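Before we proceed, please read the two lines closing this message. Report back on whether the C-alpha cells fit the sequence:
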Amino acid sequence: MSDLTAEILGPDARPTAAEFPALAAPAVIWEDDRWWRFTERTDLHEVRYLAVREAGELVALAPLLVTHDGAGLLFYDTPKMTGETNAFGAPELLDPQRRARWDELADRLADARRGQYPSLALAVFGSHHGIVHAAGRDAVGQARVLAELPRLLEETAELLGCRSTSLLYATDEQAAILGPAARARGHVPAVLGAESVLRLDAPDWDAYLAGLVSRKRMRVNRELREYAEAGFRTVVREGPEALSDPIVDLQVALRAKYGLPGGRPRVQRDFDAIRETVGDSCLALSAERDGETLGFVLYLRAGQALYGRTAGFDDDRAKGVYFALTYHETVRWALAHDVREIWYGLAAYEAKKLRGCDLEARHGWFRFTGVGRAELEETLRLQGASEHDRLLSLGPDSTTSQGD
C-alpha cells in the first residue's frame, strides 16, 4: 500500500513560492508561481490543485483544470479534445479501414462527450504537464509520485464528481513511469503532439549562420533580405510595456479570423492578466514599417529560455514576415542576450523542424466513465495513433513511443 496521499486545494489555499520554493523562478516558465496566478484568473475552467504528501510532507503540487460544461479551452477540455483534430491527430494518415471507422465514430461523439462532464485534467496553460516536485526531491522520490498519479487523479475526480479525467502533456521521461501505471488502471494513452525546441550552441549570430548548411544559410539570408527590402524593422520591447495596444489589435484580428469567441474584451483581459502576473518576463518582437506594427511574437523568458506565448500578423500587409521575425530575428536577439533555448510549442512541425527545432513528443492518458465511454476510447486510440504516425513521418528523433 502506498504511503502517498493527496489533498484537493483551491487557489486561495495553494502554497506560494515562498512556502513551496520549487515554484520560485523555475527553469520552465509554466511551473512558475506567477504563471499559475495567471491561470487562476481564467473563467473557462475551475482551477484546483493536487497536493501530494508523503508521510505528511508536501512532496509535489499539480494544477488541475475542471471543465463543467464543455466550454473549456480545447487543449485542456478532456471530452472536447477527443476526436477534435485541432487539438491533435491526423486521421488522413490512417489506413482506409481505420479511417472509415474514424468517420463512423465521428457521428456519435457529440452525445458521448455530453455525458462526461464535469471533467478533470491535470495540466497547466502552456500545454505543460504541470507537476512540480519539492525542491531537492531526488529522481526516485519523483518517480514514486508519478507512478501514483493515475490513482490519485481518479480519487480526486471521484471527490469532485468528475466523469472523465486526463493526464496531459507528459514528456518521454515522465511517460516511461506514468504510462504503465495509467494503462494498468485502464487509462487510454495517446500521443498529443510534440514540443518544438530550438537549442542554440553558437556564441553569436555570425557563428550561428556559419554553422548552418549552405541551403539553410541561403534561405535565412534571403528571408531577412526580403524582410528589410519590404521596409520592415524589428522593435524589441521587454517587461510589462511589451504588451502594447498594436499587439492587442493584431491579436483581436487573429481571433476574429479563426472565429474564436470573446473579441477585444477577452484579449485585453488576458493581456492585462499577463502584464500583472508575468509582466517582468515578457519579451515582444514587433515587425514595424513606417511606425506601424504589422506583426509580433510574444515570449516569456525564464533563465536562458524563451517560451512562445502568442503571435499575430497582418496577413495582407506583412507577407513573409512570420519566418523572419519568429525565427531569424528571435534567434539573433536570443544569441545576443544569453538565451540558449527557444520553445515554440506544439503544431506546425514541418516548418519548425526545417528551421532546426528538435521535436519532443508529449503524451496523455484519458479515462472516461458511463455511457459513451467505448466510443470515446476507440476514437482516442485512432487519434493518438495517427498523431504518432504524423510525428514519425517527419523523420528520426521526432517522437519515440506512445508512452503506454
Notes: The first helix runs from residue 33 to 39. The radius of gyration is 22 Å. The CA atoms of residues 28 and 302 lie 6 Å apart. Confidence is low (pLDDT under 50) at residues 399-404.
